[in-house]
Write the structure tokens for this entry.
Amino acid sequence: MSRPQSLLIAAASLLALLACGHTANQAQIQQAQAGKAQPGTAQRDKAQPAAAAPVLHFPPDSGPPPAIDGARAMQYAKEIVKFGPRPLGSAKHKKVEDYLASHLRGDQVEDDVFTASTNVGKFPVHNIIAKFPGAKDGIIILASHYDTNYPLRNTSYIGANDGASSSALLLEIANQLRGKPRDGYSVWLVWDDAEEAMKPDTEVDFMSDSLYGITHLAEKWQADGTLPKIKAFLLADMIGDSDLNIDRDSNSTPWLQDVVLEAATRLGYQSHFFARTLPMEDDHIPFVKRGVPCADLIDFDYGYNNVFWHTPQDTIDKLSPASLEITGRVMLESIRLLDNMTPLPPK
Ligand SMILES: [Zn+2]
């Protein structure tokens, strides 16, 4: 979904320094905050699934609930942020690539490396995929981008919430998956690269100038036959905010979001989820377009009116281990539900 030109101009003063990642239409945010329904994006009550949504049969709640070490995830976020700005093509970006790889040593890792032709030149792009095989035929993807915004590269912008928090959480999720045979689907963790736009979205439409890494991966998996095996794609973005309010994204798959909400409810975290609905442009879109069930877990209210997003104020002090733990446990519980839901709704 592209941002209408008139709104782009209206928002230009606010967004002058920003390039877009994971954007929602500003007018729609305001309407959502005012409690008004959007055309095509019903403000659904948690107890009222969309009319077209399939009826879900959740398995009984059994076994120990999933664990996440929020303090350890927070430590990873601090270490990633310590590298500083990590825009595409920079030495610090390479350091984070090495950092992620060092935590995945011994795991089954696939590197998807290519050169992206962007609006500001050619850049090396490096998606990192860690695979944890399961007994069931099918794959669940958990994804996070790890690059920081390119137009802000010469500022002190370090993307603590936007890039670092979710990438750190995936490292902690890898800790929880490692060494444990899985009865369910295979789980692939994806640290995707070049999510952020290369030019401010006041100059170039976000969707034509971003998502380079994840788009390449979607194309590659479509070509090699992996795509039909993907049962669900769960994206985490900006999930470290200590005031955690994960939005319902109207571009995501409703039934998969209902699985996420069921997982959150079982863990007692439902008050952190889906109080409002926004249309998000984020890493999941290339998979949405290819018919893969997707859920974007994003808190796009980072500071009052999202004021810290894409600013040098996106710093580690705004995050909390508890928020990382909530999101991580809900993602793992969602996997557990999906593993035991037979059959899954049709794509
Ligand atoms: Zn961003």
User: Anything to note?
Assistant: The mean pLDDT is 88. The pocket of zinc ion is lined by residues 21-22, 149, 162, 196, 310 (CB under 6 Å). The chain has ten helices and eight strands. The CA atoms of residues 240 and 323 lie 5 Å apart.
